[in-house]
Write a structure and sequence with these properties.
four-stranded parallel beta sheet, single chain, 268 residues
Length: 268
Amino acid sequence: MRQYSADLTPPWKKPQSVPEVPAEPGLVVEEPGTGFCGAVIRCEAGTVTLEDRFGKHRVFPLEPRGFLLEGRVVTLVRPSSGPARPTRTASGSVAVPGARARVARAGRIYVEGRHDAELVEKVWGDDLRIEGVVVEYLEGVDDLPSIVESFAPGPDARLGVLVDHLVPGTKEWRIAQGVTSEHALVVGHPYIDIWEAVKPASVGIEAWPRVPRGVDWKTGVCRALGWRVAHTGEAWKRILDSVHSYKDLEPQLLGRVEELIDFVTAPS
């Protein structure tokens, strides 16, 4: 005799299976009951903590079919144990594990020198690769207006420039006033050199020395701190090695770099 199933539920009314997705840090999902959308920052026994783009945290239970991933229903599960992945980039942004670098944009960010470029790369490098933004250095800004004119910035190729010691009345300030393109943004910090934008406590000093006028600033700093004067490159390595995240930098620099990234990546 043929055996029949006792389940008489029509196939179209049966719940469809959904994929199980490990709640890895950085994974962006939505909790449909509240509409809260955010990145996973923590997954513990039975719960997951999400952070939205405003920095707000919410804790949700790990329930079957409890989340949307790219618009599709999924069941979040606790990740298998393994090496912990960073949940934040050095700039403080939510880390995106496995993200590929975007094809470089036509737009650029220019900084004054190699040290500026190395510092920006160390703190914002992950963000810049995801956004496809290339940072180049100029070796000074004396010819900035003509450099910007040669770049020919436009709606799809914006140019951002970071200038040292951009204080009203300074030579750098007067040069920056010569850049008039609406598709170029020149911003700066008040420090004589990018070294000074690193918090003294991070470097292990009480404060950056005051260098007399007429004395090369880097040389004066090394002399005042007892560092080898003839090796400013060695001094810079010491400073750069002390920078681990945005927390080691002064706010006056942080805000300006974030402003430039937003400007260059804004929709045309």
